[in-house]
Specification:
44% of the residues lie in helices and 17% in strands. By secondary structure, the protein is α/β, with parallel strands linked by helices. Strands 1-4-3-2-5-6-7-16 form an 8-stranded parallel β-sheet, with helices on both faces. An 8-stranded mixed β-sheet has the order 10-9-8-11-12-15-14-13. The protein binds nicotinamide-adenine-dinucleotide.
Length: 421
């Protein structure tokens, strides 16, 4: 590769990244089976794929699968704090994937690298949060003529893309990988659940047992975080704006109340809503001394950070990934990972075993786009049901689990209306 073809922090970090990527692959049997199959069948030969994804060991294995399938893969980061520099280096040095990503980029550098990835004129975009697609549609329209379609990994990105489609602004088809059952039921719930607690523990090393732990948002991520916090012995409060979700949280055994009430008694508050200013000035004014606040939602807008800066009289950095703000009356608020997704900013993101399914969906959807893009309208499409089922079957196989099969009689019964009492 010629100089200038990538932008990573330090290629000397590659050996560590190579080992970590292989370690993750050992937990990704579905992606591993696709790696072997794609290498033989080369279903993506001649396709340029541009991915704006968290640069983690799991993403590296997705890139390997796509490259084995014949794609020319370019990656940039989907968050300035989620890039693992050793992984970025390994992708460049060992796997021949061009990467534009440095851990800790500021916003300008972050978007600069998205532009560098787009210079390669991708045919398919893989997004996590829709920053790549929105850049193509606003500042890099000349790229559009090369794009046949794209995929979107996360809830927030799907919401943004549906809004674009509703405005008539979306100019190529997107497959909402997030909405596959084999994605959000496992990745958002068990992946975010475990890794968010992992991020909080790595950042603070605080005891969770016996503490009051508030989760804002009881969607797929919030359910997972609440479940895992309870598993560690916390007294968990859930806050919601949707009555059905709130009711579900109550029946799952959690206390439900407005965040203002929860803030005054919480030792930890984690946002997972995809919404903005959820933990805002009034909550910060009421917050309990020493409270740890963190965000697991996609963007760093869920905690009103400017309000925290305004209210604070002092700011210190007692540990990596922790900023401690002292308010005028002496109360301390501990912010983790600068309010960015704490599981990636303060830990390593989701365990590979769940990303195995998310990224198998991604790889199969890229093949689907290559084969079907001419018949897909310029809107957000679900993952084809057969892809979702295939991923589930491959995962069950890999876990050594068999399931029953419908008999002919049962199939007929389940599709008929004539048989009753
Ligand atoms: N950290 C990660 O690795 C990771 C992984 C997957 C998804 N995400 C992101 O996490 C966020 C949540 O995703 P999800 O799949 O759980 O979404 P979801 O739509 O299933 O759930 C979001 C929930 O938040 C609630 N909500 C909205 N505004 C609220 C408010 N002001 N107060 C309380 N609750 C509120 C909604 O009613 C909804 O129930 C998104 O931004 C998504 O992109 C992050």
């Amino acid at each position: 590769m010629t100089l200038g073809d990538y932008e990573v922090a330090d290629t000397a970090l590659a050996p560590r990244g190579v080992k970590r990527i292989d370690w993750a692959l050992s937990e990704m049997p579905v992606l591993g089976s696709l790696l072997a199959r794609f290498a033989v069948e080369r279903p993506l030969a001649g396709l340029r794929v541009g991915g704006c994804l968290h640069i983690t060991t799991e993403t590296a294995n997705l890139a390997r699968v796509l490259a084995a399938g014949g794609a020319d893969v370019v990656l940039c980061a989907s968050n300035p704090l989620s890039t693992q520099d050793d992984v970025a280096a390994a992708l460049v040095v060992e796997h021949g994937v061009r990467v534009y990503a440095h851990h800790g980029d500021d916003t300008e550098a972050y978007y600069g690298r998205i532009h560098r990835a787009l210079d390669h004129l991708p045919n398919v975009t893989l997004d996590d949060g829709a920053d790549l697609v929105s850049t193509v549609h606003t500042e890099r329209k000349e790229v559009l003529q090369h794009v046949i379609g794209g995929t979107e990994e996360t809830t927030t990105g799907v919401i943004r893309l549906r809004a674009m489609a509703a405005d008539g602004a979306l100019l190529y088809p997107i497959i909402a990988v997030n909405d596959a059952d084999t994605k959000h039921l496992f990745d958002n719930r068990y992946g975010t659940g475990q890794s968010t607690l992992d991020g909080i523990l790595r950042a603070t090393n605080f005891l969770i047992a016996g503490r009051v732990f508030t989760v804002a948002g009881y969607g797929w991520c919030g359910r997972g975080i609440a479940m895992r916090a309870r598993g560690l012995g916390a007294n968990v409060i859930v806050t919601e704006v949707e009555p059905v979700r709130a009711l579900e949280a109550v029946m799952d055994g959690f206390r439900v109340m407005p965040l203002l009430e929860a803030a005054a008694q919480s030792d930890f508050i984690v946002t997972a809503t995809g919404d903005k200013n959820v933990l805002a000035q009034p909550h910060l004014e009421a917050i309990k001394d020493g409270c740890v606040i963190a965000n697991a939602g996609h963007f760093n807008v869920e905690i009103e950070l400017p309000a925290l800066e305004r209210l604070a009289v002092q700011r210190a950095a007692p540990r990596d990934s922790v900023l401690e703000y002292t308010l005028a009356d002496g109360r301390r608020v501990r912010l983790l990972g600068e309010g960015r997704l704490v599981n990636l900013a303060a830990a390593e993101g989701h365990p590979a075993a769940v990303m195995d399914m998310s990224f198998a969906n991604q790889a199969l959807c890229v093949v689907y786009l290559k084969e079907h893009h001419t018949s897909l309208a310029k809107r957000v499409h679900p993952v084809p049901r057969e892809v979702d089922k295939k991923v589930a079957r491959l995962k069950l196989d890999a876990m050594g689990m068999a399931i029953d099969t419908l008999t002919e009689e049962q199939s007929a019964y389940l599709s008929s209306w004539r048989e009753g009492t």
